[in-house]
Design brief:
The protein has about 190 residues and is an alpha/beta fold. The chain has helices spanning about 15-25, 35-40, 50-75, 95-105, 110-115, 140-155, 170-185, and strands at about 1-5, 30, 80, 115-120, 160-165. About 50% of the residues lie in helices and about 10% in strands. It has a five-stranded parallel beta sheet with strand order 2-3-1-4-5, with helices on both faces.
């Protein structure tokens, strides 16, 4: 079974993924966020359109490759992706998104079908937004809110899409993710 944990910047995806490993133990494996792996390793991050395209191509390919490797090794474990392939679409308009997916010989529908569920975490309000704790996070609050909506747009058509709003207490958000993950695990048939 493969589940995406997606959401806007500072939504808590990586922190929650770590708590899931602690809670579920050897039943679960987390695939790290491809963008963070690339950017912390020194991959260039630029803001002009051609660079964004190349960055997202690299992220998509690393994500796809990680998912293949982790699933081969998972042996009955639940695979949780800290972001998924469709997160790249947040950086393009509709036409550019289709061209981007065509480049990889896929479609949005094919990519959605690769995942059993999507648990979506929203960016917190301005008072809780944390730009400083992640060295690869460059978005100010306004940019983060816009990306939050664009990431959600990429995933919202998944038949097992769950949206988890920001909570005052982060523990409540963790518990909401675990509750929804338990529900998905009890109801879903894994993808081949």
């Amino acid at each position: 079974m493969k589940i995406v944990l997606s959401g806007g910047p500072s939504a808590g995806k990586t922190s929650i993924a770590k708590t899931l490993v602690q809670h579920y133990g050897s039943k679960l494996v987390v695939i790290p966020e491809a963008a963070s792996l690339l950017y912390t390793a020194g991959f260039p991050r630029r803001s002009y359109q051609e660079a964004i395209l190349r960055q997202q191509q690299a992220i998509f390919q690393v994500q796809r490759s990680q998912e293949f490797i982790y699933q081969q090794e998972a042996k009955g474990k639940v695979v949780v992706c800290d972001r998924g392939t469709l997160d790249s679409l947040a950086f393009f308009n509709e036409v550019e998104s289709r061209d981007f997916l065509e480049y990889f010989r896929t479609t949005k529908e094919k990519e959605l079908a690769k995942y059993d569920a999507v648990i979506y975490l929203h960016t917190p309000d301005m008072a809780q937004y944390d730009q400083a704790s992640n060295p690869v996070r460059t978005e100010d609050f306004e940019a983060a809110r816009k990306l939050d909506q664009r990431f959600m747009e990429a995933w919202k058509d998944h038949p097992n899409f769950v949206s988890i709003q920001q909570t005052e207490d982060f523990l409540d958000k963790i518990l909401a993710v675990r509750k929804n993950l338990d529900l998905v695990l009890s109801q879903s048939q894994p993808k081949a």
